[in-house]
Amino acid sequence: MLLQCLTSTFMIASNLYVASMTSPSDPEFYSMTEFMLAALAQLCMICHFGNRITETSSSYIRCLYECNWYSSSKRFKQCILIMMTRLQIPVEMTAGKFFPLNLPTIISVVKGSFSYSAMYKAVGQR
């Protein structure tokens, strides 16, 4: 996942740079834009489902509490308690344990891509 995020960042940045140097009337401009959007969609899908996993895991505590635990056996109550204690820390998909894969990550990747694209453009103009 880490490699996928880094690759997507550099693909988007390089396509932004090349697209900024290409005329919008050129057919190559649209193929680069399409490729960039495909890379962004791929990353968005990964981060969206990572975010859904985190949201779902945090809603399990409420579901466990709302089950009919008070009229159940002692063993069942202990299992519920263990699960609720374990779910205090939400489940997160991470990219190599460096950063979580969630919706703010998409924004960070897009910001980073624009920054790298601006850097490419500044270096290319020298």
TrEMBL record:
<dbReference type="InterPro" id="IPR004117">
    <property type="entry name" value="7tm6_olfct_rcpt"/>
</dbReference>
<dbReference type="Pfam" id="PF02949">
    <property type="entry name" value="7tm_6"/>
</dbReference>
<keyword id="KW-0732">Signal</keyword>
<keyword id="KW-0675">Receptor</keyword>
<feature type="signal peptide">
    <location>
        <begin position="1"/>
        <end position="21"/>
    </location>
</feature>
<keyword id="KW-0552">Olfaction</keyword>
<dbReference type="GO" id="GO:0005886">
    <property type="term" value="C:plasma membrane"/>
</dbReference>
<keyword id="KW-0472">Membrane</keyword>
<keyword id="KW-1133">Transmembrane helix</keyword>
<keyword id="KW-0716">Sensory transduction</keyword>
<dbReference type="GO" id="GO:0007165">
    <property type="term" value="P:signal transduction"/>
</dbReference>
<keyword id="KW-1003">Cell membrane</keyword>
<dbReference type="GO" id="GO:0005549">
    <property type="term" value="F:odorant binding"/>
</dbReference>
<keyword id="KW-0812">Transmembrane</keyword>
<protein>
    <submittedName>
        <fullName>Uncharacterized protein</fullName>
    </submittedName>
</protein>
<keyword id="KW-0807">Transducer</keyword>
<dbReference type="GO" id="GO:0004984">
    <property type="term" value="F:olfactory receptor activity"/>
</dbReference>
